[in-house]
Specification:
5 copies of one chain form a homopentamer. Chain A is an alpha/beta fold. Chain A is about 40% helix and about 20% strand. Chain A contains 11 helices and 10 strands. Chain A has an 8-stranded parallel beta barrel, surrounded by 7 helices. Chain A has a two-stranded antiparallel sheet with strand order 4-5. In chain A, β8, α8 and β9 form a beta-alpha-beta unit. In chain A, α9 runs parallel beside α11. The relative contact order of chain A is 0.15. At the A-B interface, α2, α4 and β5 of A face α6, α7 and α8 of B.
Chain lengths: ~240, ~240, ~240, ~240, ~240
């Protein structure tokens, strides 16, 4: 994960919402344009930017280390979630990626397929010298709450067990409970998933402060930056909290 | 996509309806014959023609750049749609294809299988120097309307995220809402899907004008040309609207 | 298909009913023996004989060109039909096959699996210089009638679109409606599927006459020949109708 | 099948019940030990012995030709039966096998998967010079009786069509009806499946006599030998009936 | 299995509960740390330690022979259990493994997939000189009791039949019934699965004594050691019982 770390901490800019949620759910006329995101990643001095392969092919310009998300799904499909590989590790490398990402819906009835696919990806990524980053989202009929201390720690631990180099997980809401997830990850880098835009910048900053206080590596943020009226300003604020 | 563009615009002739809808739904004694379509593509000065491999093997004569559709299904199957690869990229190349097409039923419970298959095809097509064109049709029990601004833009965006070089999507009905899909595609060429025969030629021409006004690249048209009593005349009219 | 044609017409002897229907449904003490069929194929001057690989391994003697059926299922299984590949193209070639056959249950909920499998087989067969012949039977809960003009033409057209060299389809019942299927096949050789034993020889001969009149290539017949008390006599009658 | 035949007849000792039924259903303190079975096979002068790979690895000593069963399932699973390959042909060869066995549940909703898997195994076995022996058991919700003349003949015929060198099928109960299965097999060696322990030795001997009278090759017997208080004595009795 | 045996007996330390049960179900601030387990394995003089690949990558230090679990699932998924391969045999070897483990849910409706996957793993592991150890847990709607004499013996026997070098199974509760499982395993090394923490150390020791008395090789223990207030003390007690 060294490519994405600065003094052991990290701030990643995520931009796979166009596929995961659809453009109308999250984008406006400005941030629908991936060029604006690439610019924000560079000017906001992010430690990495996350794209699906199609966006990377057209808009990635090398100013910030690249993570290519290797799987994805639309939000239109209902029922137990499954997300399958749409980009090979080889292709990610050819796009300049320094890391690959993969989402696992922990607890889904298709969990086993994602476990197996991530298992193969992790080995191939490591063989090529890239870290494998797991987005681990507990979801499906059998998951009651995906932000409880127990479930979030389970997500973090799954990343460790399956050999992820970093996990992206939801915040539990307070540093004490989140620190249990960090402990469970046992050295795997923990990134908070930014989630929907918080009511105010301060609300979000407070969350990030809690995450860092809990011992996490940083966050992978999307909407709270590029939906902000001042993305670079927001990036500056976040950077201060993370790299204190 | 350069092989299919003229001044950045394009008019493709689609003819996979024999498989997708069946001959009795769309064909008459004249247009049931693929030779008539090949002739129309050439005389109507189309920028590309779309065939399944079987039709290409027997009727493609090289006068117009070829796109081979790599997957397909019949309309007899009910339930959540799935369309699987029936032609390899290698085979398409050997038939003279300058591009390959693939249909994704966005929102179908089998979406993940089509995502994964398109992911592999896109990489193989690019490795052989061919563009990968995605027909993206939101469909399945969870899709309310497949012509709403939100859903059409989602289809367009999916093409970008998955690395398509062009997308074929339905028209929303007005240029303002369709331009959102074009924005969401962020540089991926947008083609309107021609759809069923419009009541009058003027109705269809008006749609195409709106599509071009919205910034799209053009259209992939089938029934509105080869079901027309004067296909070449209709092609002339469309060409004027697209290449103005 | 040249190996199976004489003056552009053809009469094939089909004998996969032992697997598809079971021996007790269709066989008697005489025709249960594949040697009797091989003899009938030769003496009846058929243009081809259709066996599953096991029968070909033990009974095929080279006197008549061989088509090996590559997939099959028993009639015991209920629900949406699926028939999977049980013999490789390579194996068929090693058995002396000059063509391969594959059944597609059009409209079945497993249609996509058979489409994909036939797609691979078609390419491999062509690479080895063999024609790929598609048995296309519309079947499944969503298929109302499998002998209607529309559905039979859909079957024929599917063969064209998927790259079959010939299709074996059911008869619609009259030459006028069947000629629409022949048109839809657009050059793909059309064979009538013989079906169950007709009440009288004349009934069956009349069907075949209609099929030929409709422009088809011929028929693949089984029960109406080898269940006949005089198979060679019946073959002679059919030959006269087909090669007039 | 020459390795397993003596004057065209054969007596095989089957011992896969530990997996198929579980040790408590069929074994006692004596026959739970595979060494006792290996000893019985040798001393009882069987023409072959049937083991799963794990038993073969530990207990097979070469005194009797070996058939390795390549698939298996437990009796704990309910619903439509499926049995998948657990041992490669290559591995069977390395264990000293002179033949491979595979169970097909004819009529099961998973029939197509077993057909396809057996199809691949048959070709690989033949390529390595081994016969492929099919255990064909009609089973599943759509199978009324698995010992009727019609269903047993269907099982035998399926073996022929799929290219099996021998089939192991249930007895119909009388020689007349079983001879129809032998006819349907058309030269494929037919083995009676021994089934559960018969009430008396004479009952079982009578069955075997009927099987041989019907023209079958012999039987694959398990429980009726190794559950017998005098296994070698029973083997002697069976041998006399089979090799008369 | 020689690498994990001492005088034919063995005591393994299992630590895959972080994935199988989640950290909050089984771990506290101390044992959530894999380093504590590695230390316990070494200081407690275990004959082997069981890790998932991610834990092995970060914490395995070579002091104790390593078994890498090749599959896993979370406890969040409900319904018929399935656990798929997440680590290749090759990767396990590169991590220093001297053995590989795989869980089979015997009786699950997905049993056949795990049988087939274990079948391939067993052959690959043996080709590389590693034993394949099967965790065999009868589970699913059709399993009444997973500790009955019959079901536990079935689990043990399945290991033998599928070629496992050792099986990890639940204890039946008394030596007499457990010895039937040991007999059914017919030479395959039998390990008791430690299970949840017993009420008192003496309770657990009594179980282990019964297991050894029944002829088993030893146990794979987790929670009863590392949840103990004195893990090394508990290990000493167990060692005395096992290696008497």
């Amino acid at each position: 994960m060294a490519a994405f770390l600065k003094e052991g901490k990290s701030m990643l800019l995520a931009y796979d919402q166009g596929l995961e949620h659809g453009p109308s759910a999250d984008f406006n006329e400005r941030n629908v344009d991936p060029a604006m995101i690439m610019e924000t990643a560079a000017k906001g001095r992010f430690n990495g930017v996350v794209f699906q392969k199609g966006v990377a092919e057209r808009f990635y310009d090398g100013r910030v280390p690249l993570i290519v998300k290797l799987n994805g799904k639309s939000s239109l499909v209902k029922g137990e979630p499954i997300s399958r590989q749409v980009c090979s590790v080889e292709q990610a490398v050819s796009l300049g990626a320094k890391g690959v990402g993969y989402t696992i819906y922990l607890g889904s009835s298709s969990e086993s397929e994602m476990f197996a696919e991530f298992g193969r990806i992790q080995e191939e990524a490591h063989a090529r010298g890239l870290p494998a980053i797991a987005w681990i989202y507990p979801r499906g009929a059998s998951v009651q709450s995906d932000t409880s201390k127990e479930v979030v720690a389970y997500a973090a631990r799954t990343g460790l067990e399956l050999g992820a180099d970093a996990v992206k997980i939801k915040y539990t809401g307070d540093p004490a409970s989140f620190s249990w997830a960090v402990r469970a990850a046992a050295g795997v880098k923990v990134f908070m998933s930014g989630g929907p835009k918080a009511p105010t910048d301060d609300d979000f900053i407070a969350q990030v402060r809690g995450v860092i206080q809990a011992g996490a590596t940083g966050l992978a943020v999307g909407r709270n930056v590029w939906q902000n009226s001042d993305p670079i300003g927001m990036a500056d604020k976040l950077r201060k909290v993370i790299f204190t």
